[in-house]
Amino acid sequence: MNSRIKHLITSAIFAAMTAAMILFIKIPAGVGIIHVGDGIIYLAACILPTPYALIAAAIGGAAANALGGHFVFIIPTFIIKALISLPFSCKSDRLLTKRNMLMVIPAGIITIVGYFLAVWVLFDYATAIAAIYGDFVQAIASAVLFIVIAAALDKIRFKQRW
Q1: pLDDT tens, residue by residue, 86-143
Q2: The whole model's pTM is what?
Q3: What is the DSSP letter of 32?
Q4: Which residues 6+ apart lie within 8 Å of 33 measured at CB?
Q5: For residue range 24-50, what is the model confidence (pLDDT) as tens digits?
Q6: What is the span of the domain harbouring residue 37?
Q7: 31 secondary structure, DSSP code
Q8: In a 3-state reduction of DSSP, which class is residue 61?
Q9: I need a surface site. Which of 23, 39, 42, 55 has the fewest CB within 10 A?
Q10: Largest interatomic CA distance in the chain
Q11: SS3 sequence, 7-19?
């Protein structure tokens, strides 16, 4: 199969998985929700070349907001989810490299700062401050999901078979 087509199909699958993880596995957190969809974005970024991972992340996150009725967050989410895919690398034959494990930190910071700014602009400073805790928990939960799934996929040599 042509690698471009393979990447496009895989991107669409990751976008759908991201949206599903955001829409269906979530915890209301007062201001917003806590979900583990970012863990899927991290996986996509370790499997796909950057442009494909970026668009899968952006579309998956934005689609979840559109389908979930959170229309005001579609554009900020599109941008933030794309940005959190950037720190990761797909260049290794393993998903869970030391580098990728450490990249959950800048990705989490991008999530927290990105949504803080979005909520501040869309609502107000006090609401943005109140949302930080949920974004922090979301970043940690997504990092844990990523590490667990990436370790399991590495055990079955997923990248070599993909």
Answers
A1: 999 989 999 999 999 999 999 999 999 999 999 999 999 999 999 999 999 999 999 9
A2: 0.93
A3: S
A4: 22, 26, 27, 134, 138
A5: 988 877 666 778 899 999 999 999 999
A6: 3-161
A7: S
A8: helix
A9: 23
A10: 52
A11: HHHHHHHHHHHHH
